[in-house]
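Quick one - first record:
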Amino acid sequence: MAQGHIQIQELKTEQQLRISMQQLQLVKLLEMPIAEFEQRVKKEVVENPALDDCNVDDYGDEYKNNGDNAEDINDTGVDEYSESSDEALHEDVERELAEYEGNEDIPIYASNGVREQNDLPLGDSVSFIDYLESQMMNYDMTELQEQVMHYLIGSLDSHGYIDRPIPTIVDELCFNEYLDVTEKDVNDVLHILQSFDPVGIGARNTKECLLLQIDRQLNGDEPLSELKEKFLRLERVVISDYYDLFINNNIERLKIKLNLSDAQIGMIIQGLKKLNVNPGYALSESSSDRVSTQIPDFIIETDGEDGVDMYLNGGEVPRLHVRKDYLNRLRAFQSGSSKMTKSEREAMVYTRDKVESAQMFIESIKQRRRTLYETMKAIIDLQHKYIITKNEEDKVRLVLQDVADRAGYDVSTVSRVCNSKCALLDGRIYPLSKFFKLTRANVDGTEVDSHRVNELLQSIVANEDKHNPYSDDRIALIMEKKGVKIARRTVAKYRKELGIPSVNNRKA
């Protein structure tokens, strides 16, 4: 008897997170400081024939009169980019042509309310040391820890290593900087430095540099495959237990010690050779090579009282528009769409793609400018007194989430704006990290003494059962019983800063 097939229809609800091409493009543009952004815009103009740049001289007197003040220019031209069908595209093109022709080719990336300044002098120079110090904003450190951190960064050798014993550094801090610190204080700050990028910075020797890089991969947020984790652990064993055999290239002895095949030991050695033994390469370059001109993304001017003016640095970014001949070509294709040949159809698709790409890029630039402006405005509002006085004592607690809430953006967006940009404040360059002051708080809202948490965390881990170590949740509960109430995620962050492995990697 033949068996019949039964069809079953099942309704399934599934939530997915998708990111559009324009959102992805905006994310990349937001991360770029002004110098890199200039090059990106010029590259796009070269690569997309439907995108054109224009000079003020190309327009009439009316535009020239308004050209110096971006807040007087109408934000018109292109509707928000969307992925449309062919039918919807015809309507978009008609609307685009009508608006484009009705506004006399006004550059369509200028937006209301954003003031720009283009004729800026070059800013200060930024070095590898500045780059390291800018990462301090991501950590909640006491004033003493910040002073020690500055000293350690200034003490790095040409490889990016701390090549002097900790007791020597303690003596130097005491006699040269008049800082009363212990070896533990210096070690705590050194652990934080070793969590900076590039990975391996602050190591005390090549062996520790390699171990730091392996541990960063093992304890990172990215999930590892079982095979990848296995080889990373073997790499760690090679460096921690058989370092002399490795540096002497004694592959046969290593293979016997670890009971591995030729292929396996070959893969391990290959992986180790990819690690960077010179994380401070930029420090070893000549001064002229090491520094690069730092151009401010924002210009902030105070009037000596309470007034603050802020502008965006327009740089040498040209004003952009979609070329009219490409729009007219789309109109011609539209009028004869019913009798197009194959080659004409291909030409229409090509033209449409270039026009849509140009529209999307222009809209991304507009959104980038709005986001930068609103983010910097929020920082000024929240850190107003410090910006007026430049006095560190007037700096209030400020974290990325505060700025995100004020500006109305996601915290990840604000982070991208702040991480690689700087402002010219009354003639002096400040990285945006300078305007932040970080602290951590208990789950009940009261501030946590970071020093106390570090000591308590190290004590708990030191006294745990090595065969059954504590999870982050368990550590949080133990801390709560001792009067420090913090969340599991905060425990994990402190643990990573101190270089303490996860529970699985601490198990004996």
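second record:
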Amino acid sequence: MKQIPVLNSMEKTRDTRFLKNYTLNYTNTEGGEKIYETVSNFDYDSPEQLGEKAAGVVIIGTKGDKLLLCKEFRMGVNHFVYNMPAGHIDEGETVEECARRELYEETGLSIVRIEEILPPSYAAPDLSDSSAYVAFAEVDGELSDHTEADEWIMPGFFSREEVEKLLFTERFSGRAQMAAWYFCKKISHKHG
């Protein structure tokens, strides 16, 4: 049986408002020493802290029989991408408070009822320890723009038929694509 890789040390190589770059030194499965680069939303003192804190929340919003999707311009891929409303949890803010604030900022909508909040999941664990809670919610209100100058977000409500077409004609984030596919296939889950 292979040995599990061991993270030996880490060094912060860049520090910006939202992201911190780290170089990780680890021992691989054959005992060789290797270097790996990662980014995080957090400042860390030791390798054991990686992946322990959630950075934000993603909102899977529905209104009646329509799904809320946000068409966003994402600089990291230089394209428009369909995504879910999401954002960083502010210091001292609860997951629910963050979901309500981010939903309003990105769409102008409010949460009527939170159906479920899932534990944090990683967005891209091969690149980062960034993780977010996922809040499933009924939403309502009028769509309006409250975003910052660095954001381009156009929210909209889409029927199952519209979502199915978008899935095969537009770019999506992975999490939004999975939620949209389940929504358009009318697959539901009842938590036991």
